[in-house]
Design a protein that fits this description.
This protein is mainly α and 111 residues long. 72% of the residues lie in helices and 0% in strands.
Length: 111
């Protein structure tokens, strides 16, 4: 699922990266043994490789849920969303059926 037409500003990306790396590198710096630090950073890298994909997938499903929650017909969503085709709207809305259980818990909205 793409987000064509939306751009993240460099300063937004930098701030997000800084926040995450500050936590990770701060914790890793407490490990005085460089080999232990290497292993911890490798473990955290693997965690973020998995978590990053899951977060992106969850956000795509939440986008679909937002469109579904609008109560609007797919054809009526073309203008407000900027999506080019009704099949594209349908594709995004179908992603709502694959909401992440953590997102469901956090939002308090049923699947």
């Amino acid at each position: 699922m793409t987000t064509t037409g939306y751009e993240a500003e460099l300063h937004e990306v930098d701030a997000a990266v800084r926040a995450v790396l500050a936590d990770i590198l701060g914790a890793a710096a407490e490990l005085t043994d460089p080999i232990a630090r290497y292993h911890e950073l490798t473990r955290v890298q693997r965690l973020w490789e998995s978590a990053g994909r899951r977060i992106v997938t969850a956000l795509a499903a939440e986008r679909g849920a937002a469109l579904r929650d609008s109560g609007m017909k797919q054809a009526d969503l073309l203008g407000p969303t900027g999506l080019a085709t009704q099949p594209r709207v349908s594709q995004i809305m179908q992603a709502a059926g694959r909401r992440d259980p953590i997102a469901v818990d956090l939002t308090g909205r049923p699947r």
